[in-house]
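Researcher: Sequence recovery benchmark, item below. Answer with residues only.
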């Protein structure tokens, strides 16, 4: 496994980052022991970097996997907190549930532009203070917006950006993949650590998995790539691919055939609580029923975090 310095953070990360969303309740919903074992196997095989977020509800899996390794693992998490109180609550929750004194990388989740960054200024200031005290090692943002990458890269104090990158530009909200790459390069040139998300477009490009991974691996200004994994088989395939080793064709075929989709349960009440969680405009309530536009859905599963009835999830 190749490792790279994440910009100027002084943090060295594996090129493959374990995308923590997939094992948890918003997606595969693996039993705790099984999900932790998938993560632990990735750590055993050389992955030293895992990405999660408060809304993914995967801290228990990660905490359990961390207990199984003596290697130093870099953990990144994200929060929607915008004020000091929310930021403190979010960071404390991460430290407590991950059983860690510090969090390596703490990000503002789903930033959109200079304006949302301004709206989160209080939270950011709090995180800068925590960084000075050693409770956070690097501060940053995650985003599907080119405008947010541009705004964050010009701000003092932003160490890391976690942008969406895939060859089709699926999930980029305000422009093309070329424009996104231009903005990312600008950030990289300023010494910001870049780890990309959704190289497979949230699973939509799974049939072209080799093309997807080659595309992101060949971008010289991306330090690491977060990839969701939900089985040990998938961990082995991804690690082999990142290390340039041959992959068993049968296993690759099986993974490519695993079609993922957003499932709405029959007990959905059509209340619309989940609709604002979708930045892609893929769900709406029409005549009292939740309506999905498949072609807009990037299978992120964020809508599921808003449903108290557990009526919507990626399967
Ligand atoms: S999925 Fe849940 S939150 Fe969304 S409309 Fe149905 S019941 Fe409401
Ligand atoms: S509908 Fe749900 S899974 Fe699909 S893009 Fe929107 S939030 Fe993500």
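Model:
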């Amino acid at each position: 496994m190749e490792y790279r310095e994440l910009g100027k953070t002084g943090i060295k990360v594996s090129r493959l980052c374990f995308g923590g969303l997939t094992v948890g309740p918003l997606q595969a919903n693996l039993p705790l022991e099984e999900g932790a074992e998938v993560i632990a196997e990735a750590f055993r095989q050389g992955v030293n970097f895992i990405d999660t977020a408060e809304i993914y509800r995967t801290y228990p899996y990660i905490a359990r996997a961390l207990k199984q390794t003596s290697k130093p693992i870099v953990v990144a998490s994200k929060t929607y907190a915008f004020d000091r109180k929310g930021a403190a609550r979010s960071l404390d929750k991460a430290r407590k549930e991950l059983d860690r004194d510090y969090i390596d990388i703490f990000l503002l989740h789903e930033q959109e532009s200079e304006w949302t960054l301004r709206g989160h200024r209080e939270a950011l200031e709090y995180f800068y203070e925590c960084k000075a005290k050693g409770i956070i090692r690097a501060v940053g943002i995650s985003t599907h917006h080119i405008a947010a990458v541009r705004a964050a890269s010009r701000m003092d104090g932003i160490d890391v950006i976690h942008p969406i990158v895939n060859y089709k530009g699926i999930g980029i909200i305000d422009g093309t993949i070329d424009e996104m790459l231009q903005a990312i390069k600008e950030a990289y040139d300023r010494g910001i650590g870049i780890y990309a998300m959704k190289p497979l477009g949230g699973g939509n490009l799974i049939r072209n998995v080799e093309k997807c991974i080659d595309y992101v691996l060949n971008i010289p200004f991306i330090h690491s790539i977060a990839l969701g994994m939900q089985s040990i088989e998938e961990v082995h395939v991804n690690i082999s691919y990142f290390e340039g080793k041959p992959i068993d064709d049968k296993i690759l075929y099986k993974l490519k055939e695993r079609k993922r989709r957003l499932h709405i349960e029959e007990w959905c009440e059509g209340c619309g609580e989940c609709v604002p969680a979708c930045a892609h405009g893929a769900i709406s309530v029409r005549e009292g029923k939740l309506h999905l536009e498949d072609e807009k859905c990037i299978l992120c599963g964020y809508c599921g975090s808003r449903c108290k009835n557990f009526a919507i999830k990626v399967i």
